[in-house]
Specification:
With 409 residues, the chain is an alpha/beta fold. The chain folds into 2 domains: 68-210 and 298-336, Bacterial extracellular solute-binding protein, family 7 (D-Maltodextrin-Binding Protein, domain 2), CATH 3.40.190; 215-297 and 343-404, D-Maltodextrin-Binding Protein, domain 2 (3-Layer(aba) Sandwich). It is built from 13 helices and 13 strands. Strands 9-8-10-7-11-13 form a 6-stranded mixed beta sheet, with helices on one face. Strands 4-3-5-12-6 form a 5-stranded mixed beta sheet. Strand 3, helix 3 (103-117) and strand 4 form a beta-alpha-beta unit. Helix 12 (359-379) runs antiparallel to helix 13 (381-404). The radius of gyration is 33 Å and the shape is globular. The N and C termini lie far apart (99 Å).
């Protein structure tokens, strides 16, 4: 202590100085005892309890996320950490391989984006085609709760559920913007949900792309008569249309398609958009590629969930999944439109001849479609109700479409 203290000490009464020193001593002793007790309690009581609380989390409630192959995957941000087990886990069967451009990517994106927006509380696990259930049986598997969910296109169920075709592939149907307008503001969304809910499934539009090409042919098609006897891989309502013009629709899948092309058992293929067709390699067998894809001017994709599973989710969880599906629509339209011209350039470089349908052929196809639509509406009440709604909307929309369309000089 410095001299100032001693000068102060000499000026006070001895009793007062003594009391002050005793108080200071007691304060220092109290601080020392507190520190010692804190160390003892931390080592003997608190630390064991913390250890007991941490052990179940380390063993049961956390899982390590594998390093993703795709650097865009949100799991990349979390790949080296421990994650709390999600509150909701869904197994997702996909109709599209992860290797399929655009379509497979959109299926995978549902899981990664739902994980991100839910902060890891909802986990949707992507499974390749035919691993959880055969693709053709996915709707029934979801309805029966054999699997939780599937990513597909509604037209895949068109044979057993004809009305589903109107949400998947409508010949000479609406463009992307018109289709979305009907779905969200013309009653289409409610009609889809009603159609599926009666069968134990909740349906959500969860992706969209622009139009595909129509298809690949060995020979050029310049007249409606040239379609007579053509053996063509095609399904959905488009198959019913070309069948009226003499085409022989074929149903094949996987490697059987290319085997049939090699042996000459197939003369034509209607499959998907140029970037997908290029990836599959149809240009190795067929050299005439026809546009536009009148059988499907816009491609809708869906997430279907077992209805009991869906209803078990709270409002926030449902909203997060719906928000991701809405964003998947935006992403799918943009990616598909941006990727086609590069694919067309590559196909052209490989000797593919690109054609637009001659007017006589297109007129004949449109007339055949009107006959098919009338027949489908006459035999299926669900198809009739949905078709009536869409036709009424398109009649009104045509007023705006005609005025807003930019015509080339």
């Amino acid at each position: 202590m410095d001299g100032q203290y001693f000068r102060w000490y000499k000026r006070v009464e001895p009793a007062t100085a003594t009391a002050f020193l005793i108080a200071m001593r007691n304060i220092f002793i109290g601080i020392f005892v507190g520190v010692v007790l804190g160390i003892v309690l931390g080592a003997t009581v608190i630390a064991p309890r913390l250890k007991q609380q941490q052990e179940p989390i380390a063993e049961a409630d956390v899982e390590r996320v594998a390093e993703p192959e795709d650097p865009r995957d949100v799991a990349m941000q979390l790949s080296k950490g421990l994650l709390v087990r999600p509150a909701v886990q869904l197994k997702l069967a996909s109709a599209y391989s992860s290797a399929t451009p655009v379509l497979g990517a959109l299926a995978q994106r549902v899981g990664s984006e739902v994980w991100r927006v839910s902060n890891g509380r909802i986990q949707i696990n992507f499974h390749e085609p035919d691993t959880l259930a055969p693709v053709a049986d996915m709707f029934d598997a979801v309805a029966s709760s054999a699997i939780d969910a599937a990513f597909s296109s509604p037209g895949m169920w068109g044979d057993d559920l004809p009305a589903a075709n109107l949400f998947g592939a409508i010949p000479f149907g609406p463009s992307v913007d018109e289709y979305l307008a009907w779905i969200y503001f013309g009653g289409g969304k409610r009609l889809l949900e009603d159609l599926y809910s009666k069968r134990g499934v909740h349906g959500i539009i969860c992706g969209m792309t622009g139009p595909p090409g129509f298809g690949w042919f060995r020979d050029e098609i310049n007249t409606p008569e040239a379609l007579e006897g053509v053996r063509m891989l095609i399904n959905g309502l488009g198959a019913k249309v070309v069948e009226r013009l003499g085409v022989e629709p074929q149903q094949l899948s996987g490697g059987a398609i290319f085997s049939a092309l090699e042996t000459g058992q197939l003369d034509a293929v209607a499959y998907s958009m140029p970037v997908v067709d290029l990836n599959l390699g149809f240009q190795e067998f067929l050299k005439n590629y026809y546009f536009p894809g009148w059988q499907q001017p816009a491609i809708l994709l869906e997430l279907i969930v077992n209805i009991d599973k869906w209803q078990s989710l709270d409002d926030g969880q449902q909203a997060q999944i719906e928000a991701v599906c809405g964003d998947n629509i935006r992403y799918g339209i943009a990616e598909s439109e941006a990727s086609q011209f590069a694919a067309l350039k590559q196909l052209y470089a490989e000797g593919v001849r690109l054609h637009r349908w001659p007017d006589p052929v297109q007129d004949a196809l449109k007339e055949a479609w009107e006959e098919v639509a009338a027949q489908q509406a006459g035999t299926d009440s669900d198809f009739r109700a949905i078709w009536r709604s869409l036709k009424a909307f398109r009649t009104e929309y045509a007023i705006w479409s005609e005025l807003s369309e930019l015509r080339q000089p």
